[in-house]
Amino acid sequence: MESENSGVKKEAKAAPRGYKKSNKQVPAILAPGNYLLVRIQEAFNLIFTPAMNPLYYLGAITFLFFWVILGSGAYLYLFYNMSPDGAYESIRYISEDQKYYGGIIRSMHRYASDGIVIVILIHVFQVFFSDRFRQYRWVAWVSGAAILPVIWFEGASGYFLVWDKPAQALAMALSDMMDVLPLNADPVQRNFLTPDHINALLFFVMSYLHLAIPLLLLILAWVHCMRISMPLIHPPKSVTIVILSSLVALALIKPAASGEPANLMELVGSTQVDWFFVGMFPLMHLLDITPLTAWIAGSLFATVFVALPWIVPGPNKSEVERPAFEQAPIEVDNDKCKACVLCQQACPFEAMVVEKFPEGSPTAGRAVVSPEKCSECGFCVNACEFGLVSMGGVNKITMQTYIESLFQPQKGRVTPTSLAFVCERSFNQEGFYSGDRKRLASNEEVASVVIPCVGILSQTIIDASFKAGAKGVFVVDCRPLDCHYREARRRLKLSDDPERQKFHIENMEGDNLKVLSVSPFETEALVKKINEFNEAVKGAKKVDESNMKDGEV
Amino acid sequence: MSSSKLNLGGIVTLMAPIVLIFFLSTSPGYTYHQPDESMIIVSFKKTTERRTLCDDSQMEDFRSTEDTQRSHMRKKGRNCGSRDRVSLEMIINMDGDERFNGLIQPSGLNSDGVVFIYERFSIKAGDHTIEVKVRDNKDPNAEFKTFKESISLKGHEIAVIDYDKGKDSFFLITGDSTFRTMAK
Ligand code: HEM
Ligand code: SF4
Ligand code: SF4
């Protein structure tokens, strides 16, 4: 970080810089995909509203599918016969003799598995193209990458257990894949040579793997969310209801059925294929791809995929306009720490941990930041009511001083009437600000403060703005559930905590405070709204006290 | 946005994954093998001859070292000569066409294990004569052992050719799971 770019410290000398370039927050290589992603998200926002947009709940929906799979799978296991001779019949029994419960449960088990693949693929697309997989997020990416083959094998082993014709084709394909590995001299293929060759133990192993892998998945999912504080793992009720009823509907319209029973003395002719799990094998057969080629190509792909957080270069920082409060490593003045844990609660990435000291110690405790987990979002800066946390020299006090400076009368310039806090990621801010980025280009009466994320705002800062002379404060942030630093997700979880209420921008809204979440493509409408707001508050004689009461420090 | 538009958009969007699952969970189907295709799988394991056996002087050496070694250092059943075994040469002809001709290495890092064979041969349904020729002697001039059999395969039928160690001969398992020893 080049600290000379810090708006606060170098205010006087900062060269005028306009937002000439388009939004460069995302690495150039991801830009086209990011554009597509945001367009799709916006279309979904129109359809579902931003609060119910399923694209903002993909991780949570994945969990929902996972619970459905676990629940339905547990039921199927009660009736499943783990032997080559009994497997097929036991599943036929569930599907046909228990048509209206077993059959539906079996279908839901299958379709939730297919659904999880779709949702995971979109989840991966989304975290990748929103640039949320690098740096402090690498643990989520790498553990996610580890989940992929495990989920795939879980699904494939499920199809094996049915022991019908598709399962036979799968067994052949899997053993062909195994046999090019230098693991075992005795070809796995020989296990499926004739019905007499089938190893009952192998069946047993597959069944138990199918049972044990979900445990492994739970562990991986835990690792996946380890560095994400308060991950959203439950979709909203309405989303849950829609998904569950869709699964039931699918189960009724198209009950999952087995193929013909497997017969090792007979070739597999035409079979149905679940393209989500076993589609690669027909493709390999069709395109004559040998198992060895598949292994090589798969390993290369996997290596690149896992390494993406380190391969994809970050955005060119010199092209990115800096926020007024420069992102930088966090420092805590621990001599005065009260161990109140507010900073830890504010942190979206589990980077801040507060240790409480035993009673009688000189200080109550200390707050420790792990730099490798820290996103430099700055949420902790204002969270500390005692101003002990600073980011690159910026703390609560300097922020307030900076805001005051914006309202100091300047020769040849009108004094601003209102203040806009603008998240630097929220939209394409090209040409949005005046040369020094302290006013809107379109309206000299509106002072502007570019911030890394609205999560750094607190009641104190809002109050300071009014005190400095702003008659109105306008906050521009991203779609809340799409916040780069997961601000709104935490707010959802913390919404019952009165201590945290004062950090919820929405709770501060009133006549002179407006929060507007924008799509990245709405600059013109936004400018219009800010101007209208400014006109409205200009007439007001006095700051609305209601905005200042509870949070006054 | 009007509510009718909202519902329509919502329904279309929600239907997309449902329709995807509806179709891709089973279709399009795939035909691995045409109805007139059948298959012969040649698969067996066989222990081939040791590459070198003891001659008299080696045997002498072997015995004397064995005497001087402490018992726990002796490998049970250890033989003199080298441990590695010869590769298996196999030729498979079907209806007079050579379908396979190869040298298969014994398993194990020291090539001292069993030879494992697993080869699939796609073949049209109908009558066929199959000839399996193998040679796994340390003597490079030894003759191939040849086994021959005629078989009539139905569409999709799989026949398996396996090796019977006891009889030192090959046998055929046909689609109805009946066994037939191949003629020498
Ligand atoms: C069983 C499969 C998966 C589940 C249940 C799952 C679930 C989740 C959840 C709940 C979150 C947190 C969302 C939030 O509250 O902000 C998340 C984030 C994330 N996931 Fe997954 N995920 C899965 C698979 C994957 C895969 C395959 C990848 C990529 C290889 C991946 C990459 C990520 C990344 C990079 C994040 C961090 C995003 C952020 O911090 O905003 N996930 N996932
Ligand atoms: S800057 Fe953000 S990520 Fe870093 S410690 Fe503070 S709250 Fe946590
Ligand atoms: S918010 Fe401030 S006082 Fe409270 S634990 Fe964090 S650093 Fe200490």
Q: Can I get a quick summary?
A:
The complex is a heterodimer of chains A (553) and B (184). Chain A has helices spanning 31-48, 58-79, 87-97, 99-129, 138-161, 165-179, 200-225, 237-253, 280-287, 291-311, 342-346, 379-383, 396-406, 459-468, 487-494, 498-501, 523-539; strands at residues 270-271, 330-332, 352-356, 365-369, 389-391, 418-423, 439-440, 443-451, 472-477, 513-517. With 553 residues, chain A is an alpha/beta fold.
Secondary-structure map with pairings?
The complex is a heterodimer of chains A (553) and B (184).
Chain A: H1 31-48, H2 58-79, H3 87-97, H4 99-129, H5 138-161, H6 165-179, H7 200-225, H8 237-253, E1 270-271, H9 280-287, H10 291-311, E2 330-332, H11 342-346, E3 352-356, E4 365-369, H12 379-383, E5 389-391, H13 396-406, E6 418-423, E7 439-440, E8 443-451, H14 459-468, E9 472-477, H15 487-494, H16 498-501, E10 513-517, H17 523-539
Parallel strand pairs in A: 6-8, 6-9, 9-10
Antiparallel strand pairs in A: 2-5, 3-4, 7-8
Helix pairs in contact in A: 2-4, 3-4, 4-8, 5-6, 5-7, 5-10, 13-14
Chain B: H1 3-24, E1 30-31, E2 37-46, H2 56-68, E3 88-94, E4 97-104, E5 115-124, E6 126-135, E7 145-153, E8 158-164, E9 169-173, E10 179-181
Parallel strand pairs in B: 2-8
Antiparallel strand pairs in B: 2-5, 3-4, 3-6, 6-7, 8-9, 9-10
The complex binds protoporphyrin IX containing FE and iron/sulfur cluster (SF4) (2 copies).
Protoporphyrin IX containing FE is lined by residues 59-60, 62-63, 120, 123-124, 127, 132-133, 137, 140-141, 144-145, 147-148, 151, 221, 224-225, 228, 231-233, 486, 489 of chain A.
Give an overview in words.
The complex is a heterodimer of chains A (553) and B (184). Chain A is α/β, with parallel strands linked by helices and 553 residues long. Chain A contains 17 helices and ten strands. The longest helix of chain A has 31 residues, at 99-129. Chain B is elongated, with a radius of gyration of 28 Å. Chain B has two helices and ten strands. In chain B, the strands form two sheets. A five-stranded mixed β-sheet of chain B has the order 5-2-8-9-10, with no helix packed on it. Chain B has a four-stranded antiparallel β-sheet with strand order 4-3-6-7, with no helix packed on it. Chain B folds into three domains: 1-30; 37-49 and 85-181, Immunoglobulin-like (Sandwich); 52-84, no CATH class. The N and C termini of chain B lie far apart (84 Å). In chain B, β3 (88-94) and β4 (97-104) form a beta hairpin. Chain B is α+β, with helices and mostly antiparallel strands and 184 residues long. The A-B interface holds A 44, 46-48, 110-111, 114-115, 118, 169, 179, 185-187, 189-190, 193-196, 242, 246, 249-250, 253-254, 256, 264-276, 279, 282, 285-286 and B 1, 6, 9-10, 13-14, 17-18, 20-22, 24-35, 37-39, 41, 43, 45, 107-108, 113-114, 116, 118, 156-158, 160, 162, 173-177. The complex binds protoporphyrin IX containing FE (HEM) and iron/sulfur cluster (2 copies). Protoporphyrin IX containing FE binds next to α2, α4, α5 and α7 of chain A. Residues 330, 346-347, 349, 351-352, 369, 374-380 of chain A line the site of one iron/sulfur cluster (SF4).
